[in-house]
């Protein structure tokens, strides 16, 4: 397994819609394993493949609180097939938008259909933190960030902050050699 680089805002790849997985094979399972290791190392509770610059519909999640009892979920082609009308707010963060947290309202419960690590179609019904995490990660697969659920003012403020930071962190551009006079 390998720890992959997580891309961050303002990287335009975060807005891409990810491609469906044709079938869950060894290559996809290796991606899932690498994503899980990357997510744990970050540390985080969910990671979409696009966040490691792979535009595939693959997600890893583990919302377990107990380090000794990890309960990873591996989802290929996840889709929300039902969501409750009732909503709740959770304070969300994102590994691709480091150190920024904001309350986001989402359906309290969801049912998600997906292919598991063995390519078997499954459904999971979730509420609470798991429901929020599933919706957050599936949003990533559709090119949607959690800040897209915020007011325009808050979203623009966050985007400007990360654009400025990216400019500060960018390596200096070497100047062209001068021709003799």
Automatic annotation (TrEMBL):
Cofactor-binding details, from the entry: Binds 1 Fe(2+) ion.
Protein name: Peptide deformylase
Catalytic EC class: hydrolase
InterPro entries: Peptide_deformylase, Peptide_deformylase_sf
UniProt: Fe cation binding residues: 94, 136, 140
Family: Belongs to the polypeptide deformylase family.
Cofactor: Fe(2+)
Region ranges (Disordered): 162-181
């Amino acid at each position: 397994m390998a720890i992959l680089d997580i891309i961050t805002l303002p990287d335009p790849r975060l807005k891409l819609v990810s491609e469906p997985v044709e079938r869950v094979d060894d290559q996809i399972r290796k991606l899932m394993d690498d994503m899980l290791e990357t997510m744990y190392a970050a540390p985080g509770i969910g990671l979409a493949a696009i966040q490691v610059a792979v535009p595939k519909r693959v997600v890893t999640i583990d919302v377990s609180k107990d380090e000794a009892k990890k309960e990873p979920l591996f989802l290929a082609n996840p889709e929300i097939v039902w969501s409750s009308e009732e909503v709740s707010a959770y304070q969300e963060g994102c590994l691709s938008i480091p150190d920024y947290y904001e309350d986001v309202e989402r359906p309290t419960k969801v049912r998600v259909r997906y292919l598991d690590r063995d390519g078997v179609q499954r459904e999971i019904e979730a509420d609470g933190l798991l429901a929020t995490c599933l919706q957050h990660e599936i949003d990533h697969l559709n090119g949607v960030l959690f800040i897209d659920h915020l007011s325009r003012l808050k979203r623009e403020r966050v985007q400007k902050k990360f654009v400025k930071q990216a400019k500060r962190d960018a390596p200096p551009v070497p100047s062209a050699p001068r021709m003799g006079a």
